[in-house]
Design a protein that fits this description.
Blueprint lengths: L8 E4 L5 H11 L3 E6 L13 E2 L2 E2 H4 L6 E4 L7 H10 L3 E4 L5 H5 L3 H7 L4 E6 L14 H8 L19 H24 L3 E6 H8 L1 H10 L16 E5 L4 E5 L3 H10 L14 H6 L1 H12 L4 H10 L4 E3 L3 H5 L2 H5 L3 E6 L3 E6 L23 H7 L4 H9 L5
Parallel strand pairs: 1-2, 1-6, 2-5, 6-7, 7-8
Antiparallel strand pairs: 3-4, 9-10, 10-11, 12-13
């Protein structure tokens, strides 16, 4: 079965998370991804423990469906290899600090002269222009400066980050969407183009309704833990043995909710007649509900509320969700073969297209695994390859 991006070749000059996750998504959709690593390899290969084989678990999470070549871009002899790669490629992705790609001779202006159809995506912390252009672009920096951290955490407690590098991961999704859009435009026009994706830009967009709450009121959004600024009750509640989340998103659900929890008196309380009034009187209502939920177990509340079709869920640990039968049915946890490790666990792909679903075709590569193979495909002889190795151009 052909995948939607079969026939598309991606040169991946990225490292850490935002860039590698972008190219991994393209690989899931069928693109041939050639990961070009410096002599020491992607920095995150060493971001352990824990380890899976010789590489960190962190590296393994973002580098499936790729081939690896070790190439020292600082050596002049690498230019011929890059030129041949660019001529046969469709997409270039890099996440160096602005200006570094030009120093290495792999910037858009240089590579588009070699291949005018190239779609070139730069991922950085703050974009290729503006006052913050040269600031280092880390996930935590983008979260801090976007305002998202200021609204994440418990009231009267310090701001917190997400449990995963959410700025990197969401930026990767926007980068992949931009690349696919540019490829579609190229199909119509024959022209490549340059894409400038910034972590900060994406996180500002993700402020979504919180930004519009500020536009509407001029009031600074606050940290509210698991609670929703515009819907009540819509948050986590502690039970006798854990936590549940409850989402009462309309008035019909509110009526059913009050019946299920045995508090019909709340329906007749003028403070809680509508969602708008519940938002204004949030504190008093939540105190009542917190006492009530602690009286029974998580499983009790999930069963009772689900019977009444109230949106409810237990808060799973990571181990719990990875062992969940529905998650396994959706093929979001898989076993794959790795040439050095043997069988290893891998997260699945959410690309569930009816005709061309995403696939995991290649496990994360070991460092430089495909160097010789790629060079041979570019037309270099074994003598050429040996010369490159002797000069430490490739590894």
């Amino acid at each position: 079965m052909d995948l939607p991006l079969k026939g598309i070749t991606v040169l991946d000059f990225t490292r850490v998370m935002a860039g590698p996750f972008t190219t991994m998504l393209l690989g899931d959709l069928g693109a041939e991804v050639i990961k070009i690593e410096p002599p020491g390899g992607d920095d995150t290969r060493g971001w352990g423990p824990p380890w899976i084989g010789e590489d960190s678990a962190y590296f393994m999470s973002a580098n499936r469906n790729k081939k690896s070549i070790i190439l020292d871009l600082k050596k002049i002899e690498s230019r011929e290899i890059v030129e041949r790669l660019v001529k046969r490629s469709d997409v270039v992705v890099e996440n160096f600090r602005p200006g570094v790609a030009a120093q290495l001779g792999i910037d858009y202006n240089t590579l588009s002269k070699i291949n005018p159809r190239i779609v070139y995506c730069s991922i950085s912390g703050f974009g290729q222009s503006g006052l913050y252009r040269d600031k280092p672009g880390y996930d935590l920096i983008a979260l801090a400066m976007s305002g998202l951290m200021s609204i994440t955490g418990e009231p009267d407690r310090p701001p917190v980050k997400f449990g995963v590098p959410i700025a990197d991961l969401t930026t990767a999704i926007f980068a992949a969407l931009s690349i696919v859009s540019a490829l579609y435009w190229r199909e119509k026009t024959g022209k490549g183009q340059y894409i400038d994706i910034a972590l900060l830009d994406v996180q500002v967009l993700l402020l979504s309704h919180q930004a519009f709450n500020f536009f509407a009121t001029g009031e600074e959004p606050k940290r509210m833990g698991s609670a929703h600024p515009n819907i009540v009750p819509y948050q986590a509640f502690e039970t006798s043995d854990g936590y549940v989340v409850v989402c009462v998103g309309n008035e019909k659900l509110w009526q059913n909710f009050c019946k299920v929890i045995g508090r019909l008196d709340l329906l007749n309380d003028a403070r809680y007649k509508t969602n708008a009034e519940r938002v204004v009187n949030r504190e008093a209502l939540i105190q009542e509900l917190e006492k009530l939920f602690k009286n029974n177990s998580t499983s009790y509340w999930v069963e009772k509320l689900e019977e009444a079709e109230i949106p409810v869920a237990p808060i799973y640990t990571v181990s719990k969700v990875l062992e969940d039968e529905h998650v396994k049915h959706r093929r979001m946890v898989l076993d794959i073969d790795h040439p050095k490790i043997g069988r290893m666990k891998m997260l699945g792909t959410p690309f569930k297209l009816s005709e061309t679903p995403g696939q995991i075709r290649i496990p994360p590569p070991y460092k430089g695994q495909h160097t010789d193979e790629i060079l041979r495909e570019l037309g270099f002889s074994q003598e050429d390859i040996n010369t490159f190795k002797n000069k430490h151009v490739v590894g």
